[in-house]
């Protein structure tokens, strides 16, 4: 037998010895496991309790086997998405901006209109107990298509102040009986008159600051020489139906033992005495005011133009108008301003270009970014086919290297064992 055959024979003997040792270890471990399982038995009840208390249920969620999907972001998926979003947003922004621009709107700041009697600005004369009368004239350059709405606007009036917003009693506004009012209404909750305590109805700072200017609009024709035609303004249909039907109800005791708010000039029962369905807490001017604004500059719906008259059945015609104003509401104490607004609406509401501009800006930005990413992709992206070939080549080379390392390691092990056997 030559030396090579002797080496191979010894290697086979070493392999068989290793296999025999492994088998003996496996049998020994099985015997140990048999010894363990043959120990004290556990009742089936205890096993069920342990299994129930420690082992989670075999569900997809608790065993973390829920199916998952993760998108692979590539140029072929991201770039079309950017361009699609950009085009959709630009189109939508253009539509919104178009419908906002076709809204006809007239805004007039009448804060400093002069009194008819003294020719002095009403802002310097009016307080909560007096009324100033002023008149303004204006011209509409085009017809305002029906329906037409009249608004009043306020600037620098913070209806969103925390204490102001909370200063109301919803139970009182719901017409429920009460023996005391919400403490948030203080100091506008009650007054003592002739030694008798009376509740303020409605209580709180919101109701106490109710806007109470009034307007009368007259149309004087295209040449401003025709006899004035008074435009009928509707006092109802200006509040949300949910507010009027759900949140505001008149009490059954007909406001017994109540008194008007401090800054009001008339009782709550005199807001609209001609229409009992629009009087008391159900008065729509009050309901509109009680829905506080989120920003310091806001407008609220005042009236709807009655289009049943022949002269105004389809529109508010272009021409000259005069407005008689009962100036009651002071605003100079907080540096505020008051505005009279006539406006039409579309399916998106009144004139508000912000939403359309926002969509146009975002859409344009997406399109620009799409072109930038497209240029980067063409300039710096590697060929996918060459990348795949390179990956396969690297994998094959790595496999060959790993096999060589394993064979060398095994050879060294066998050589070492042979040297031990020789010695």
Please characterize this protein's 3D structure.
With 423 residues, the protein is α+β, with helices and mostly antiparallel strands. The chain has two domains: 75-103 and 352-382; 107-344, no CATH class. It is built from eleven helices and 14 strands. Strands 1-14-4-11-9 form a five-stranded antiparallel beta sheet. A four-stranded antiparallel beta sheet has the order 2-13-7-8. Strands 5-6-10 form a three-stranded mixed beta sheet, with no helix packed on it. Helix 1 (3-37) packs across helix 11 (384-422) and helix 3 runs antiparallel to helix 10. The longest helix has 39 residues, at 384-422. The model is unreliable at 1-11 and 25-40 (pLDDT under 50). Keywords: Membrane, Transmembrane, Transmembrane helix. Residues 27-36 have a biased composition (Basic and acidic residues). It is a multi-pass membrane protein. It comes from Brachionus plicatilis.
Mean pLDDT: 83
- Assign an overall shape: elongated
Q: What Rg is obtained from the alpha carbons, in whole angstroms?
A: 43 Å
Largest sheet: 5 strands, antiparallel
The percent range for strand residues is 15-25%
Number of strands: 14
Class by SSE composition: alpha+beta
> What portion of residues is helical?
40-55%
As for the number of domains, it is 2
Which strand order spans the largest sheet, edge to edge or round the barrel?
A: 1-14-4-11-9
Tally of separate helices: 11
| Order of helix and strand elements from N to C terminus | HHHEHEEEHHEEHEEEHEHEEEEHH
Unreliable spans: 1-11, 25-40
Distance between the termini: 20 Å
